[in-house]
């Protein structure tokens, strides 16, 4: 186990770059995951974690992992230096660097009765993480991200998802390719649209395979989804409010789909 005392150490500099810069994460095909719970989720999702940084005095945290990394992969970090790199202000004592996975559509394995969430052009990492957390809780089979506007491995996404981004099957592609994929696999497509022929979400039957499709908070779904949709869906609300947070809206719809399909019985 190597010891790091200085924030100028090359390993610490690389770690901070991965935390702070999307372009570095993309160039290196690596991400940072902080916290024991999230690291366990990454291991459960069969991610390769190549380095571990432990706050000095908290080496016991390694015993909580499902495997023991080799000594050359572990760095014991001086407490002051560790506090400079942690995002959680001392609540977690372990950080890891992992290797990205490919998220191509042709690698996504789904069943004939799958239910999936599609998010087009998501912009806020915190929203993405919240969507993954709810999709996992509601026992969805996959999340498809169309035309992404932010880095999938943004630390804020990982943190707000509580690590569920690592265990939820995911594909990332253009909207055109996602629509083609859904049609090829005979999905019924439900789109969240403020449209004259939209039906209340709680008055529909969501037979599988089906996809719930949500757009960005700022712009909604693009027009191609209007043509691809089998049914537009709306959530009724008080006239004093004209919209809901994306993750809240998606949560309402996902749990209605889950209820229809008895996914948690």
Describe this structure in words.
The structure is a single chain. The chain is α/β, with parallel strands linked by helices and 265 residues long. The protein folds into two domains: 98 residues, 2-Layer Sandwich (60s Ribosomal Protein L30, Chain: A); 157 residues, 3-Layer(aba) Sandwich (Alpha/beta knot). The chain contains nine helices and twelve strands. A seven-stranded parallel β-sheet has the order 8-7-6-11-9-12-10, sandwiched between helices. The chain has a five-stranded mixed β-sheet with strand order 1-4-3-5-2, with helices on both faces. Helix 6 links the parallel strand 7 and strand 8. Helix 1 crosses helix 2 and helix 5 runs parallel beside helix 9. The longest helix has 16 residues. The mean pLDDT is 94.
Helices and strands in order, then pairings?
Blueprint: E1 2-4, H1 10-20, H2 22-28, E2 30-34, H3 36-44, E3 49-55, E4 74-77, H4 79-85, E5 94-99, E6 115-120, H5 125-137, E7 142-146, H6 155-160, E8 170-173, H7 175-184, E9 188-192, E10 199-200, E11 210-214, H8 223-228, E12 231-234, H9 246-261
Parallel strand pairs: 1-4, 3-4, 6-7, 6-11, 7-8, 9-11, 9-12, 10-12
Antiparallel strand pairs: 2-5, 3-5
The ordered H/E elements are EHHEHEEHEEHEHEHEEEHEH
Mean pLDDT across residues: 94
Sheet-strand content, in percent, reads: 15-25%
How far the N terminus sits from the C terminus, by CA atoms, comes to 46 Å
Helix proportion range: 25-40%
Q: Ranges with pLDDT <50 over ≥5 residues?
A: none
Number of strands: 12
Number of H/I helices: 9
What would you call the quaternary organization? single chain
**Which second-level CATH architecture of the largest domain applies?**
3-Layer(aba) Sandwich
What number of structural domains do the residues give?
A: 2
Instruction: Determine Rg (CA atoms, Å).
Output: 20 Å
Query: Which strands sit side by side, in order, in the main sheet?
Result: 8-7-6-11-9-12-10
The CATH class assignment of the largest domain is Alpha Beta
Question: Which sheet architecture does the biggest sheet show?
Answer: 7 strands, parallel
